[in-house]
Amino acid sequence: MINRNSYGVSHNLNPFRCRYFTVKVIKNLCNPSNSQSLIQWRDCLKEDLNELENLFYHQGNLTQVLLSDFTVKAELIVMGKQFTTLDLHNLLTFLENEKIDTIQLFAPEIIENTVVMCFSLNAFPSSLKVKLDNFAARFKLDFALMKNFPDWGKPGLVLMDMDSTTIQIECIDEIARLFGVGEQVSAVTALAMQGKIDFNESLRTRVGKLAGAPVSILKEVADNMPLMPGLLELIKGLKKSGWKVAIASGGFNYFADRLKDDHGFDMAVANTLEVVDHHLTGQVVGEIVNASVKARTLSELMERFDIPISQTVAIGDGANDLMMLQASAMGIAIHAKPIVQEKAAVSLNHLDLYGVLGILSANKGTHWH
């Protein structure tokens, strides 16, 4: 028997599939006093309902009825250390107010202590990303909004900046601090990362102040490099999924090669400090790894590993990373300078590299069980 619902969609008559969710499901989602973790909410749905697939939000209702004219125009991934049913309710209301009237919800999951949830949207207003930035900041969430994400199930390439991206420090600032010229160098570093001065000029200026520093300082800094949280888990996940991961850094190869050897990066490209008689000369040897070299490195690695552009991800935090981010299929700014956040496809402001892993590996299956 065929029945046509209020939206003019034909479907097999099935009491479960035709009904809209009410009572406990809506109460747990919409009542702030009963706000709970999305994972708890998901598990309650599993207990209350025998089957759960193809869950949609349409005109204020949750339903399993698939609208005949539903076409995916954008994909949205939202993440947070704390992500509750109240947050979800506010998000769905926000999206509805932005003229997105049908949203498909995928089962929330925990990825390395981060709650991750995916959505498909039937509209992609031009102002949506900017407005989502404000929404996410208010609720301390991170998000990624794109027409299409790279496919975790196919080989891909992640190219990462090093300083303040792969690790939590700027190595040149640490060398300068140990050599007693920290303030002079860090001030120039800050301007360079904001894009306020030419990167090549700034690097030569900063390296020049290190002339005479003993090369042993490099080992001291390398031995104490704090990794960005989530780095090891991200590399492990990438390797397991057949992805390549590399570093393109405007810093120095002493540190990039150390990270490559210790943690399994497939390649590392960075600047070379000149050393004479066990001391830094204050000069850089060879081509400076600036923004254009980073973007070129992405192209070279794509060719070397036979990776299509659609399967590329670049991650960075400074102005020197912008060309690389914009050349990839998905450029991710992590705790980045304002100019980078504004131009990157994705900005992570609350999470770290766990957030990158969440975006790439998020489940987009329709089954909630």
TrEMBL record:
Spell out the InterPro entries in the cross-references.
HAD-like_SerB, HAD-like_sf, HAD_sf, PSP
One Pfam family from the record: Hydrolase
Look up keyword Magnesium and say if it applies.
yes
Which residues does UniProt mark as catalytic? 161 (nucleophile), 163 (proton donor)
Q: What is its EC number?
A: 3.1.3.3
Query: One of this protein's GO BP terms?
Result: L-serine biosynthetic process
The reaction(s) this protein catalyses = O-phospho-L-serine + H2O = L-serine + phosphate; O-phospho-D-serine + H2O = D-serine + phosphate
Q: What pathway is this protein a component of?
A: Amino-acid biosynthesis; L-serine biosynthesis; L-serine from 3-phospho-D-glycerate: step 3/3
Which cofactors does this protein require?
A: Mg(2+)
The UniProt keyword set, sorted, is: Amino-acid biosynthesis, Hydrolase, Magnesium, Metal-binding, Serine biosynthesis
Cell wall biogenesis/degradation among keywords: no
Which terms does the record give in the GO molecular function aspect? Answer: L-phosphoserine phosphatase activity; magnesium ion binding
Name any GO cellular component annotation: cytoplasm
Family designation: Belongs to the HAD-like hydrolase superfamily. SerB family.
* Alphabetical list of NCBIfam families matching this protein: HAD-SF-IB, serB
Q: What is this protein called?
A: Phosphoserine phosphatase
